[in-house]
Each structure stands twice: as structure tokens, then as C-alpha cells.
Amino acid sequence: MTSVPVPGAQEAKMKKLIYVLVAVVALAAAFVGWRMMAPPPDDLDLARSKQTQAGMFTVAIAPESEPVRQGPLHSWIVTVTTPDGAPVEDATISVDGGMPQHGHGLPTAPAMTAALGEGRYRIEGVRFNMGGWWELKLAIAADGRSDDVTFNLVL
Amino acid sequence: MRPRLLTTGVALAALLLAGACKPSNLSEGEARVVATLSLAALPLLPADPSNRVADDPAAAALGEALFFDHDLSADGSVSCASCHQPTRRFQDGIARAIGIGEADRRTMPLEGVAWSPWQFWDGRADSLWAQALGPWENPVEHGGNRVALVRQVANAYRDEYEAVFGPLPDLTGLPEDTSPLGSESERAAWAGLTDDERGRVDRVYSNMGKAVAAFERTIAPVMTRFDRFAEAVAAGRRPEGEAALSDLELEGLKLFMGEASCVNCHNGPRFTDDHFHNTGVPAVPGLPPDRGRADAVAKVLADPFNCLGAFSDTTPEQCGEIRFMVRDGEALERAFKTPSLRGVAGRAPYMHAGQIATLEEVVDHYASAPEAPSGRTAIEGFVLTDRGRMALIAFLNTLEPMDGKASHVGQAPQEN
User: Fold this and answer.
1) Which of A17, A19, A115, B177 can bridge B7 by disulfide, Cβ–Cβ 3.0-4.6 Å?
2) ω before A67 within 30° of 0 (cis)?
3) What does the pLDDT look like over B95-126, one tens digit per residue?
């Protein structure tokens, strides 16, 4: 700091302004970078078994083969029961989802392709084409009622 | 003095955040990503159940001959290799391909193409063999017509064809120039064929594609300096000697995985997510609007040579890609396939119609994230410095082949 001459009030103001500008630009850069690189929230619920939103069903998901890899198409088995554990038959399940931090949906259109009995259903055609936080949203309709549930997956 | 110290402190802290860590080493998360980009992480060549000769060496040898055969074009001047030039890593170095005429899109490189579930920039073919059938009949590429092409193969490759596919059907009596996609007279001649005749021609034609696909499956990605580096990182070793990256290259790699977010789409050992994205690439003046994936969905569904069609060697259950593809929505508008970045520095110009001349301008495009001519760009832009641009390009240069030669052609390890 010794090299800095004792400045007039105006000069000091200018310097301060420059520092502030540098800080703002750098913070903006950091923010953009942070948002795109942001890790999933720490408190993300990664449970593979959940109640649907309105509590109509309990839903469990499991990939048909582990590990779930980024890239290839894969299938999931979805098990639907009533809250007291009775299997729900004749359900139809539709699938949606995406990456909340990137603002895009799933790269494929997965679909329920089989009812396997005992409340178990196969979902085919799931792909995750990027690493990070994915949402898998299942809308379940059975016995004239429908409810949905969102699972979080981190690749 | 104190307020100034405070602002200085904030500025320094922000700069540290923005610049992440020192470029001399990778964080644990970065090292994990680097390992996923390594050639060593390349999965086995995926099987293609729709092509029963996909891994038959005799089919590949026939396919190689067809690939280089100029006689499979209207005027004997164009082969697949005219644009997919083996000495230029199977591309041609020009903005838009030139065959019989000029195409609307850039020639795609073929290295590692068999790992990709969708072919063409817009994915209008769901297999390598279905792709190979397009250019032969495209009026600006080979300009051929189906009956003439099939006849040429029957005349020039009878033994080779029959050794792989069995007896050629009788083609005598079919009109000369006949195709479902050609000129008006060619289409009229095609309409005049019986179902049986059309089926016989299409069978041979589809087999030509399957042979070329068998050949193209041997064009595998090759080792680069980056792969040596990534191997060391994955093994927890310090990259040394030829495995070491310079500070600038390493800085570029960190940007690639970090603030620039390139790795979101250019991921995995081929540096592509095999998906379709609108990245706001400008339209080419004078060319009709190109809607990319949005127009390709109907084409692949209507293609008689798709995985679900009569010439596919598999059952519909095996055709996951086409069964579960996204068929509509704004995300398809002007979306094009993420190209691999292996060898990217050596193959200007860039983008699906060669719109961007240099890597510098490509990096600037992604940093500035302009609005798309139609649909919405998926990229968000990032703050780019001159040093950052240099660093990204230095890193991309580490994806050149180590021996400086064209892609290796040989049998890649396969999935059973």
C-alpha cells in the first residue's frame, strides 16, 4: 500500500468504484458458473420408496439392472401399493421428469410396458444423458383415482 | 482504508470462486468426471440386433468395397469416401458436403459412429445401416436410384454378396431407373413394380446398408494425449511425461467441465450424450429453414428401413430407441445431435452446416449464447476471458490422435 500516493478524495472514490466493479463482475461470473455446476441440494430426498402426493399410493422404484449408467436405455420396476401395503393392480403409470437445474425434460419418452402382477409394473425407455440431479415423475391412475410422485436420482 | 480493504477482499474472494482452484491439480469431483471422459471408459461396441451381419468380417469387407465404390453414384464420381475421407478422419473439411450437388449439411465424422443410437445430424436414421441407405439415393449426394444401385451390386459383387447374404434375387426385367425417392419418372416406375419386386429390391438394398454398417463399426475412436492424462488421473497417478497436460490445457479442461458447462452435453468417452439440442446456431442464408430433430421424427417413423420395419433383423421389443423417442415438443425444434469432440480441432468448419469457421468462434458462440433462429437455445452462456478461450482451445487440441494419423480401422471389441 506504500506505493499508493495519498490520494485526493475523488481519486479514492474512483479506486473504490473500480474495486467494486471488479467484485461485481467476478461475483456474476462465479454465480453463472455456480448455477450450472451446482451440485444437487444437500437435503435432496433420494428415497426410492415414497407416498404419492395426496397419499393415495405408496410407490417404490428399482432399476431392472444396477448400476444405472448415464447413456444406455434402461428399465425400472415400479411397485404400487395402497398406504396399508395392499398391491394395486390395473394401474396405468405415465412417466415424466427432467433436470430441474438445467430446465429440460427427459431425453426419451419412457412408458409403462407391462403389468407384472402384485402391484409391479415395468417402465421402459428411460435414459439419463447427463450427470447430475434428475427427477422421475410418475403419475399413477388406478380404481378411478390418480395421484403422482416425484423421485430424485443423482448420477 | 478499511472500506477499500473490504472491497479488495470481496473482489479477491470472488475471483477465487470464479477461477475455482489452482489449475495445477483437479478436485476430487473433477477427477471423477475426467475418468468418465477417458477412452478407457468406452463401453464395448453395442450390438445391433437389427443387423444380423453387423459383426461379420465378410460383410465388413464387402461394406468397405461399397464404401469406396464410385460406381454407386449417378455419374460415377461419388463414393461414401468422397465426403467421409479416411485421410481426414472420415470427413471433408468443408462447410456443406459436395457430391453430385451441394448438401445442406456438414459431413459428420465417422469415428466411433457405431456407438451412437441415432444417425445423421437430426437422427432421422435409427441404425447405421439405415443411415447408409440415405446418401446413395440423395440427388445432391450420390444421386443414384434403387434399382440401378442394386443392379450394380449384383453385377460387381455377386460372389461377395451371396457369401454373406445368400442368393441374389432375380432382377431381370425390372425397369432401369427406378426408386421410391427419385425423379418423377423413377417414382412412377417404382409404383409400377409389384409388391414382390419392390420387396426383392429393398431386400438387396437394405443388405448393402448392412454391409457398409459392418465396415463402419470398425472405425473406432483412437488414443489421444487427453486419454493418457485421464488414464493416470483415473488410476490416481500423477500424470507425467506424455500424460501430462500443460497449465493452459488443464485450465481449459477445468473450464470445459466447470463454468463453460461443455461437459453437460459433450460427456462420456466420445464427448457426446448422443442427444439433440438447440444451441442457437445461426441459420444459413439462402437455405430453407432447417428444423433438425423436429422434422426428423416423422422421417424415422416413416422409414421402411427402421428398426421396426420388414428389413430389420430383430423384434420390436429390441427397438427401444425408436419406441421411446420423444416425438414432439419445443425441445425438438432446431435440435441437432451433439457431435463427438474427438479430433475436433482438426476438422473446421463447425456446426451442422459448417456455419462457424473456427474453434475460437465456436467458443465465443457458446459463451455469448445467442438466441436461436427458431425454437429456444438450450445454452446459457458464460463469462469468457481471452485466456479462457485460449485454454479451452488448448484443451480441445489434446483430443487429437497421438500418432497424428487417421482413425484406426480394425475390429473393435464387441458386446455379445
Assistant:
1) A19
2) yes
3) 999 999 999 999 999 999 999 999 999 999 99
